[in-house]
Amino acid sequence: QSALTQPASVSGSPGQSITISCSGTSSDIGTQVHVSWYQQHPGKAPKLIIYDANTRPPGVSSRFSGSKSGNTASLTISGLQAEDEADYYCSSYTTSSVYVCGPGTKVTVL
Amino acid sequence: EVQLVESGGGLVQPGGSLRLPCAASGFTFSVYWMHWVRQAPGKELVWVARINPDGTYTSYVDSVKGRFTISRDNAKNMLYLQMNNLRAEDTALYYCVMDYGAYSDYWGQGILVTVSS
């Protein structure tokens, strides 16, 4: 059982925007700066797309944006493209000095 | 070019042990936190363990505490995960990760560990 909660799936048409939520607690997302998002295509290693809740690493498209409010983090993908179809995972540092991850959200481009 | 190459995986019986090495190259290994993350087939990511740059601090997910040990050899640019008393639920693809969840985040391709009789 994951410590963070994500929707199992989210879908959208090309060009639309979608938002994936990641719910935690005051022991993780609510009090930690280090909240990250990963994109994983089938058979590939995960790729970091957001760190520190809202910062994109170099080379990551500006169509990906992150935010955090209270115990919930969110990932928004704007201008949805076919290549965005993948699994997305959130992760957070915790007050116990370990990291926790969400169960993943499958994004489908209709 | 940054490279992280895991090895040492395979089939092991419940209660057995395995040591996973991860060879690092293309960056200054000795200044980065290093992590192990695993993913059971078709399942979610699970952060397993981390070690600080000089190897003096480690932390673990509760499910592996007392069974797994993360270590590093900065002279050889090597990260290790010693796994003892393995259980079926430890079956997963194990990833070596540099700077997990931070600016220089980088993952190896993973190595499969299967625990089965």
The greatest interface between two protein chains, and residues involved on each side, is: A-B, 23 and 21 residues
For the largest beta-sheet of chain B, the strand count, sense and barrel status come to: 7 strands, mixed
* Average pLDDT for all residues of chain A: 96
Head-to-tail CA distance between termini of chain B: 40 Å
Pick out the low-confidence regions of chain A.
none
Biggest β-sheet of chain A, characterized?
6 strands, mixed
Q: Which geometry of chain A do the CA atoms define?
A: globular
Give the percentage of residues in beta strands of chain A.
Answer: 35-45%
- For the CA atoms, what is the radius of gyration of chain B? 13 Å
General description of the model:
The complex is a heterodimer of chains A (110) and B (117). Chain A is mainly beta and 110 residues long. Helices cover 0% and strands 44% of the residues of chain A. Chain A is built from no helices and nine strands. In chain A, the strands form two sheets. In chain A, strands 1, 3, 4, 7, 8 and 9 form a six-stranded mixed beta sheet that branches. In chain A, strands 2-6-5 form a three-stranded antiparallel beta sheet, with no helix packed on it. In chain A, a hairpin with a 6-residue loop joins strand 3 and strand 4. Chain B has 117 residues and is mainly β. In chain B, strands 2, 4, 5, 6, 9, 10 and 11 form a seven-stranded mixed beta sheet that branches. The radius of gyration of chain B is 13 Å and the shape is globular. The N and C termini of chain B lie far apart (40 Å). The mean pLDDT of chain B is 97. Chains A and B meet through strand 3, strand 7 and strand 8 of A and strand 5 of B.
List the helices and strands and how they pair.
The complex is a heterodimer of chains A (110) and B (117).
Chain A: E1 9-12, E2 18-23, E3 35-40, E4 47-50, E5 64-69, E6 72-77, E7 86-93, E8 99-101, E9 105-109
Parallel strand pairs in A: 1-9
Antiparallel strand pairs in A: 2-6, 3-4, 3-7, 5-6, 7-8, 7-9
Chain B: E1 3-6, E2 10-12, E3 18-25, E4 34-39, E5 45-51, E6 58-60, E7 68-73, E8 78-83, E9 92-98, E10 106-107, E11 111-115
